[in-house]
């Protein structure tokens, strides 16, 4: 054994074998130091994400999860305490509100009381039952304007009858307790004698409208005018016993009645009537004639003469007669018949 260690080669070999572990360990130690340095400079994505998340949730900590400012003592900050009272204080305030009396608020030592406090409600007093409230009446629909006629008479006049609808027209007039004047043709009176008799017995005025209702025949001469009126007059007298002198010439007196014709009428004792309101029911033959009457009445509101409305015994006139009657009634007009004592109204006067 001693001879073995005397050999130089052997000793060198043994030294090398002994140094290899030392050199290898040194290399491993240097590598470990370098790896730690790199891990500190380049953190892993998972660790970085966790650090950033915690740093966002806890503003007082930096990404390394170290406090960036000194940590205040345990308890809420001064600013938070100023904005909102403590939980215990809130409970005490709420109890004070329900009990109706102020309760002292406990304040922790070193903590300033809240700036704003909720005012306590007054103590509840026993309430006596309120008296019953009478039911409120809802306002009704505003009434239509009335009294613009101021009780002024209005004279409804019907031409060209009697007709098949004469009875229904009389029914409408009876409903409104209205009296009217009927200027009738001789032939129609002979066809509807019952209507003529009912007009007379109901208190309406009977008038004459001639026989032919023809411009060429009626206005041929003064004698033709008087002749037709005399014939119709006799028919009325035969049916009712009434000798009427109220007349209306076909299509109105203007321009067909000449001064000579008018003089003949006066000499024979007749009273010739025209109108002041032409309903134009003969032209419209619908509800428009009611609007036409209303429009003309408005224009004559301040006039002083009689209001005489021209109508005709026609089915179309009957259909809308109730609407006209309702309007006149609401305007406080009174329905009167013409009579022989009145001064007639005539076109062109």
TrEMBL record:
<dbReference type="InterPro" id="IPR011330">
    <property type="entry name" value="Glyco_hydro/deAcase_b/a-brl"/>
</dbReference>
<protein>
    <submittedName>
        <fullName>Polysaccharide deacetylase</fullName>
    </submittedName>
</protein>
<feature type="compositionally biased region" description="Low complexity">
    <location>
        <begin position="101"/>
        <end position="127"/>
    </location>
</feature>
<dbReference type="Pfam" id="PF01522">
    <property type="entry name" value="Polysacc_deac_1"/>
</dbReference>
<keyword id="KW-0472">Membrane</keyword>
<keyword id="KW-1133">Transmembrane helix</keyword>
<feature type="transmembrane region" description="Helical">
    <location>
        <begin position="12"/>
        <end position="33"/>
    </location>
</feature>
<feature type="compositionally biased region" description="Basic and acidic residues">
    <location>
        <begin position="78"/>
        <end position="94"/>
    </location>
</feature>
<dbReference type="GO" id="GO:0016810">
    <property type="term" value="F:hydrolase activity, acting on carbon-nitrogen (but not peptide) bonds"/>
</dbReference>
<dbReference type="InterPro" id="IPR050248">
    <property type="entry name" value="Polysacc_deacetylase_ArnD"/>
</dbReference>
<feature type="domain" description="NodB homology">
    <location>
        <begin position="152"/>
        <end position="336"/>
    </location>
</feature>
<feature type="region of interest" description="Disordered">
    <location>
        <begin position="58"/>
        <end position="136"/>
    </location>
</feature>
<dbReference type="InterPro" id="IPR002509">
    <property type="entry name" value="NODB_dom"/>
</dbReference>
<dbReference type="GO" id="GO:0005975">
    <property type="term" value="P:carbohydrate metabolic process"/>
</dbReference>
<keyword id="KW-0812">Transmembrane</keyword>
């Amino acid at each position: 054994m001693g001879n073995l260690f005397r050999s130089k080669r052997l000793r060198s070999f043994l030294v090398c074998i002994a140094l290899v572990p030392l050199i290898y360990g040194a290399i491993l130690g240097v590598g470990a130091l370098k790896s730690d340095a790199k891990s500190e400079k380049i953190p892993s994505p998972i660790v970085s994400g966790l650090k950033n998340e915690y740093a966002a949730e806890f503003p007082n900590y930096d990404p390394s999860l170290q406090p960036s400012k000194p940590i205040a003592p345990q308890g809420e900050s001064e600013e938070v305490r100023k904005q909102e009272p403590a939980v215990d204080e809130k409970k005490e305030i709420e109890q004070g509100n329900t009990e109706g009396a102020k309760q002292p608020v406990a304040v922790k030592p070193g903590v300033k009381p809240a700036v704003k406090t909720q005012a306590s409600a007054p103590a509840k007093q026993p309430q006596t039952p309120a008296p019953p409230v009478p039911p409120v009446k809802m306002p009704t629909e505003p009434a239509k304007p009335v009294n613009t006629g101021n009780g002024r008479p209005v004279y409804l006049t019907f031409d060209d009858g009697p007709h098949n609808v004469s009875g229904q027209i009389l029914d409408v007039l009876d409903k409104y307790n209205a009296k009217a004047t009927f200027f009738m043709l001789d032939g129609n009176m002979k066809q509807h004698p019952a209507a003529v008799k009912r007009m007379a017995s109901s208190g309406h005025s009977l008038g004459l409208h001639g026989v032919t209702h023809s411009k060429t025949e009626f206005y041929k001469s003064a004698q033709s005018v008087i002749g037709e009126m005399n014939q119709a007059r006799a028919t009325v007298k035969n049916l009712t016993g009434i000798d009427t002198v109220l007349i209306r010439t076909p299509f109105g007196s203007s321009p067909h009645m000449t001064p000579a014709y008018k003089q003949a009428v006066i000499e024979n004792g007749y009273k010739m009537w025209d109108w002041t309101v032409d309903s134009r029911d003969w032209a419209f033959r619908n509800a428009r004639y009611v609007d036409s009457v209303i429009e003309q009445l408005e224009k004559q509101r301040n006039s002083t003469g009689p209001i005489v409305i021209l109508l005709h015994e026609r089915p179309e006139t009957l259909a809308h007669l109730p609407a006209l009657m309702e309007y006149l009634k609401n305007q406080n007009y009174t329905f009167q018949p013409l009579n022989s004592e009145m001064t007639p109204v005539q076109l062109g006067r």
